[in-house]
Amino acid sequence: EVKLVEYGGGLVQPGASLRLSCEASGFTFSDFYMEWIRQAPGKGLEWIAASRNKANDYSTVYSASVKDRFTISRDTYKSILYLQMNTLKPEDTAIYYCARDGDGTYYYPFAYWGQGTLVTVSS
Amino acid sequence: DIQMTQSPSFLSASVGDRVTLSCKASQNINKYLAWYQQKLGEAPKLLIYNANSLQTGIPSRFSGSGSGTDFTLTISSLQPEDVATYFCLQHNSWRTFGGGTKLELK
């Protein structure tokens, strides 16, 4: 069974850093695209970062809203996806979800989701 | 950047109704459009990808159609458990979500 469990969220002050983790199980972690999506309270979904699979050298892509502040990475031995978030702003307040593609390709997005972890940026 | 526009923003319908949700892309995205259902307090769930491919385990009353810039999600006979917010996602040029359609029972 595919399972994704996010953790690491919490309350931080503006300008602070935070690292989110997404522990994956039930599948071969290196075979799949892994991505982060966030949802501000009461708002819609926003894709923010992707880590391609091993076949694509784990290369990364970011949305304009987080590029140069957030970094997506993997620990392939532990099957953990990370999101390092720096210089946090109040507008980064959201539930952060990790998600996996359906078949190891770019064209089957977000077939599996974690339960999300809440990040609150406030003084 | 590709913009995705969903309509309507809110929809009220009765059990058994045929319901149609729309999603429009600001430029051609071929067939690369997915639909997600999000119930209150839960993570989204994939319903449809590549415009009309039904995700495993999703009831057949859900169907998708369209290509290019105009796409539709249809629920053939609305059930109480279908109350949710529905999001479209273009996955032609990375990912962009639409703003969502909130579906309620009349």
Summary tags:
heterodimer; A: 123 residues; mainly beta; four-stranded antiparallel sheet; 0% helix; globular; B: 106 residues; seven-stranded mixed sheet
Q: How would you characterize the overall build of this protein?
A:
The complex is a heterodimer of chains A (123) and B (106). By secondary structure, chain A is an all-beta fold. Chain A is 0% helix and 47% strand. With 106 residues, chain B is mainly β. Chain B has strands spanning 4-7, 10-13, 19-25, 33-38, 45-49, 53-54, 62-67, 70-75, 84-90, 96-97, 101-105. In chain B, strands 2, 4, 5, 6, 9, 10 and 11 form a seven-stranded mixed sheet that branches. A four-stranded antiparallel sheet of chain B has the order 1-3-8-7, with no helix packed on it. In chain B, β7 and β8 form a beta hairpin. Chain A binds chain B through residues 35, 44-47, 50, 61, 63-64, 97, 102, 106-111, 113-116, and chain B through 1, 32, 34, 36, 38, 43-46, 49-50, 55, 87, 89, 91, 94-100.
Low-confidence stretches of chain A: none
Q: What is the radius of gyration of chain A computed over CA atoms, rounded to a whole number of angstroms?
A: 14 Å
Give the overall silhouette of chain A: globular
Enumerate the spans of chain B where pLDDT stays under 50 for 5 or more consecutive residues. none
Structural class of chain A: mainly beta
Task: Work out the number of β strands of chain B.
Answer: 11
